[in-house]
Amino acid sequence: MCELLSESEWASPISADLILDSKILPIEAPKLMQSMATERADLMFATSSHLQSLLAWLVANKDFICNIPSRQKENLTRQLSLLTWQQGWTLPTESKRLVKQHMLQLPIFNQVTATAPYKASSTRRTAIGTSTRAVLMIEGLPPIPSIPSLAFFDPGDMHEKNLLDSFDLLEEMPLLDLFFEHIVLHLEEAEESVMAEVKLQLVDFVLEKNLRPSDSFKSRFSKFKLVHSAICSSHDCIRFRFPASTVDPTSTISNLFFDDEDVFPEPGFLRRHHEVLKTCGILRELTPEILMERVHNFATCSKDKQQLIVKVKHLFGLPLGENFKLTPASLKELRTLKWLPVLCSTLKEYQMVSPEDFRAVDDKDLVDLVLCVFETSVTPDWKGLLGWNRVIERETLTKQLTQSLAQRSSRRIDKTLAHLSSRGDCSTLKQYHCILSRNGEYLLPDRVSLPGSLLSRYSLTPFLDEVEPSFVRKHSQLLKELGVGQNLTYDDLLRVQSMVIDCTQSGKLSNDNLSVVVSLLEISTRLQGDSKASSLIMIPDTEGQLRSRADVVCGDRDVAGKAASFSFVHPKISPELAEHLGLENAYARANRLGIEIEDMDDDEYAPRESLTTTISDTLGRYPIESTFSEFLANANDCGATQVSWILDDCAHGAHESTALLSEELKDLQGSALFVYNSGVFSDRDFQGFKDIGRGGKIDDETSTGMFGRGAMTMYHFTDVPMLISGSYFLILDPQQRLLPRRRTNWERKAGVKVTLATARRVFPDQLRPFHGLQDYSMDDDDPYNGTLYRLPFRSTEHTSLKETPTFIGIDETEVLLEDYHSTAQMSLLFLRSVETIDFRIRGRTPSWSVTARRQGGSVDDIFQDINITSSQQSGATSEALWRIGITDIEKAPKELVNAGRHANKITECGLAARLKLEGSPESDLPNQVFCTLPTGFSIQLPVSVHASFAITGDRKTIPYEDMKQNSTITAWNRWLLTECIPSLYLDFLKDLAPRLGEKVFDFWPSLKSGTWKQGFGDVIHKAFWNRLADERFESYQLFPLVETRVTTEQSTPLKTRRDGKKRKLFEVTSLKSAQFDVLRETTSAKLMPLLSKLCPNWVRPRHLWHDMVAFKIHLKTTIIGSQHICKLFKLESNCVILETFLERLEAEGTNHKGLTTRDEAMKLLLQIALPDSSSMEWIHGCRIMPMLDQTLGTIKFQTGDGPSLFREDAPKHATLLASFDPKPQPLRNPLLGLLTESSNLRTIGISDIESFLVHADASSVHHSTNDNMNAWIVKFWAYLDPRLQTLREGGNIKTKAASASDLLKALKLHDTPIYRYHDGASWHYITPQQFEGGPYIVAPSDRKEHDLCKLLPGVKTVDPNCLPLQLKGHGIKLE
Fold it and tell me: Where are the beta strands (DSSP E) in 741-857?
């Protein structure tokens, strides 16, 4: 101790009593004192060489230690460090804890402190203590002001560091934790400028230490004002900003801020830490917060507006990130706040305007006369943000257009019109003078036409003009939407005429207006269309007054008589123009008035509807192929039995055309399509051509047609159809181009109907093409007994009757009719009268024909057989036998009675099933949906379906699903599909079942085709099975019984028909009585003789079983399965049937499906009765166990011991062999599944072998040499050997040979032939007793030795596989 402390120190009064001079004491004294100190608690003895005692003494004298010089404290530190190295690692845990407490109290450690102005740090040795957190000083850390909660220590040398590390006396606090959790918080509370400078030094130090800041650092840094601000950057005034409120002056957003704004970092600070600051949240990109802050700043600042404009332009040039999004409130504020400067043209000064009053420069020509325009280009993102991409309001555009028209700014007008057109917003333009005409004026849209019109030849200026060509090129779509066309109409002319009249003074036309009227008349002669409107065009007379057409005449003015009172046309009306106008000649009028001809047209046949519109609409709805069905329907309605299609190709040239109804009909005497039916038109049928659209048959409840438009499909082929029927000839010209004119208004007639006699007398060549066709002769005065249409083909594809004309000539029609052949083969199924359809080319044999013949019965029968025969010119023929069912529906739910257009028709539904198809049909059409005729919709059912559906007007849709649209029609059709058709379907199958037997199942709706598609078939399928599940139909005789083969012993053969055709009805049963066979088809076929006896109502539903299960119908049925079979064999009568079946099978050896043995039959039957363990309860009490004596035993389950059946349980040896199998499989022997503790069955044991082998039937097998026996004996020994070994191991026999003999004797097998040897030809069997006393040896395993043994005379080699295990190793060794 004296060595540690100087003499002056330990000799002081404080230490005199504490320190002994050990140099003057005997050597044993210190040891003795130290030993005593361990025994006495009141004695402390410390030496400088013992760590714990030294520390205890130092702590006890810490006040003394505190006053010693620093050099002595260093000596103490060094000594304590050395003792720690020597003794510290051996100290127990509790001692270490005590040593650490003593260390903390010693004032020997260097504490670091700093005082203002904090230029440098100082140190002093103090105790660490426990009142504050002692932290290890971080190297290089700038001076830190005193922090109350922390004390910083810096070890002066390695010995001090050793003490600190050994006892964890200091906390090594990470720099970032120290800085952010202590230093920054302390400095934030200090306001002195000196502290700000210290803070700056510390921030510099921390940033330099974190050049690659972590996410944690970035998060912490962002929470404090640590960025040195450029404003007031002197030492006297240092300010700091949050990173998130500091702008990077090198970024693109810096130009949004004014120089005097306190947002930038101090340049030197930025230069030192720029890279770190960029990652720590300093502002570099535009964010929603920055944007809104700038918007508010711009709106309230008083900066120069030119500077502000520069800032705004820069703002709009900044990109917006993908995730840039404002809240709804901010977005509204952005658009409504006035923060954009604009120069007011009137006040010549800047004003602040909101973005709502602005548009981008792209929209300048659309809004610049109404709104402000930002002259610099703006990106689409900014347009969307500012609302500048929104649709410009119509009011704004119309104001722009109005002012542009007033200024005649063609650029703005063109841009505005193009924009409105692109938006489809042109309706308001009809009231604006916005269309540029050829004369440079802007006119209303209804006062212009496209270039190339008749106005280019005949001027109607200023009332009507053509559009300037360049305007057309720019605004073609706009002109189209405004209805500006090239073709003038009568409405245009009448409008001009009205304007001329309005500006005419004193009723007389001026020269300019007269020229306009003449041009108007010239144009009118070149228009086609409404003849009524053309009659309203007025004609100028010689006085220049406008008169109606009927009031003026043309021609010679010197006509005598009444001509003196005639008004003649103006001289400027040329004779050619007068003729084109259809003006009556003065001479003709005088003659007409003189003979008093009445101006009536009794022969005219004009329809009541607007023909061309109606026809065009009909042709758009009805495809051309529908023409054939429509004419077929018309023929059926008029009672025709035959329909013929005839192509007249005029192979020898066009027909004579000298005497026609009008000269214009001459071009129609060429090729044509004829349609013949054997019915005759009634007056009502002829009237139907006038009532187009309403239809002449709408009130006829027996007719097929519904809409009265079907006949108009003939206009697919022609413009001018004509026909003869009964006593009349009819010709129609809906375009009113070719027939004679009316006398009342001089328009062309739309149709003419005259008697055949009149036609033959006045215009016979009009009938010439009909002559010689279908028994019509021009020489016959009697009415024609039939109806014959003639549809002359168009010479070109142009026609006003079709929206998209396509040329249909003789070649195209021939292709269509050839394709129609396949449809025609099904079209006759549900027709009442038509029996034959054929097609031919005039003068040739038919290309094809289809004939329907009803086999017996009446057309009014519900169920009918129809034979459809088809023949072709090529010689191919086919014949199909159909069974149809059709019934009238007399009642419907009240809400459906008047649904659709079927209200006045007879409601019916029907089904058709093709029973037979022979010959070479052209195609096998799928089953279809009919509405009397095929609708073109295929159906996923094995039958075709017919009903009085409510079909849309184009016959293309049968609504049945969407109840929101056409709800009335949809409800009607759904009622037919879900109620009427399923009911008839059941009756239909009831009719077919006795006739077809099991083949009737092919016509049931089923899931056999896989997943159903949504459609008619799916609706009917579900409704059918749901209806069948109804208890009302449980007694319906729908299910044919299985056809069983009758053996010759059971029947007496009778004479049958020579043609092989059978006439018989099959037996059927009901759902309630049927016994459904769902077994595998091969299984039920093999057991057919048995099942037919056991199940009198045996039905095999085949694929229908999936539907029965899906609709839970199987729950109501009897199923031939495990439960039913077990139930049957609890009755003695059924067991007798089974025994008889097995006896006959044993006697015959096989049945017709390959069942050979009673063993196989019983195995099949047991597999049915016992498919799995769940059926165990059902088999209790069944007499179905095959016994060895070929009888049947009863299987029982009981708790006590009962008689065992297994000893007799196997038919012959089959079951025993299965038991010998080391891995028995239940599928091979179903009885194995019954081997439970509660059953009266058990497995065969070793003690049962004797009784099995001595059985009469079994023993006879052992002496046979067949393959069955050879296989059986191997399995027998595989079973017996391990059990013999078990018996041997439990006995007292020592030798192997004796063991085998004794065991076999014990089992009474010593005299049973169970060994075998081979003589080269076959196996022979011997008893164990013969083996022991005869010339027998065990066959060697070596092949060569085995061959040598064969040379030994009289010696037989026994098969080792059929020997006890003890004898298998006794093969002889020849060496």
Answer: 751-755, 784-792, 836-841, 848-854
> Amino acid identity of 656?
E
Mean pLDDT of 1304-1331: 84
**CA–CA separation, 72 and 820 (whole Å):** 126
The residue type found at 894 is K
pLDDT digits (tens, 9 = 90+) for 1167-1214: 888 776 666 778 888 888 887 667 888 888 764 444 444 433 333 333
pTM equals 0.54
Three-class SS of residue 989?
A: helix
pLDDT band at 191 (very low <50, low <70, confident <90, very high): low
How far is residue 494's CA from residue 512's CA, in Å, rounded to a whole number?
Answer: 18
Per-residue model confidence (pLDDT) at position 612: 80
Mean pLDDT of 950-964: 71
- Across residues 1102-1110, what is the average pLDDT? 88
DSSP alpha helix (H) spans, 380-525: 380-386, 394-407, 410-422, 469-474, 476-481, 490-502, 511-524
pLDDT at 39 over 50: yes
- Give the C-alpha separation, 203 to 751, whole Å: 105
Average pLDDT in the 748-776 region? 89
The tokens of 377 are what? 């280009």
In the block, residue with structure tokens 């300093």: 282
Q: Are 38 and 86 spatial neighbours (Cβ–Cβ below 8 Å)? A: no
Residue 1176 bridge partners (DSSP)? none
* Whether residue 1228 has pLDDT greater than 80: no
The burial class, CB within 10 Å (0-12 / 13-18 / 19+), for 1370 is middle
Handedness of CA 850, 856, 862, 863 (dihedral sign): negative
What's the pLDDT at 808?
Answer: 87
Between 1267-1289 and 1296-1306, two packed helices, what is the crossing angle to 10 degrees? Answer: 110
Half-sphere exposure of residue 863, counting CA atoms within 13 Å on the CB side?
A: 12
The tokens describing 207, both together, are 């940033």
529 burial type by CB count under 10 A (0-12 exposed, 13-18 middle, 19+ buried): middle
Are the C-beta atoms of residues 1231 and 1211 closer than 8 Å to each other?
no
The pLDDT score that the predictor gives to residue 23 is 57
The arithmetic mean of pLDDT across residues 1011-1031, rounded, is 83
| HEC per residue, 1070-1113 | ECCCCEEECCCHHHHHHCHHHHHHHCCCEECCHHHHHHHHHCCH
Cβ–Cβ < 8 Å for 910, 886: yes
Provide the token pair at 709.
């438009």
d(CA 687, CA 16): 152
Residue 1192 identity: L
Sequence-distant (6+) residues with CB within 8 A of 858 are none
Q: How many CA atoms lie within 13 A of 330 on its CB side?
A: 15
Q: Measured between alpha carbons, how far is 1087 from 1091 in angstroms, rounded to an integer?
A: 6
Q: Where are the beta strands (DSSP E) in 855-970?
A: 863-872, 877-888, 908-919, 928-931, 933-938, 944-947
Give the CA distances from residue 1371 to residues 630, 732, 1325, in Å, rounded to whole numbers and listed in that order: 99, 116, 19
Q: What's the pLDDT at 192?
A: 61
Q: In percent, how much of the chain has pLDDT > 70?
A: 80
Is residue 134 within 8 A of residue 103, CB to CB? The reply is no
- pLDDT for the residue numbered 673: 96
Is-contact 762 752, C-beta < 8 A? no
Can you give 536-565 as a three-state secondary structure string?
CCCEEECCCCEECHHHEEECCCCCCHHHHH
For the ranges 21-35, 626-640, 662-676, 1089-1103, which has the lowest average pLDDT?
A: 21-35
pLDDT at 663: 80
Interhelix angle for 51-60 vs 93-105, to 10°? 40
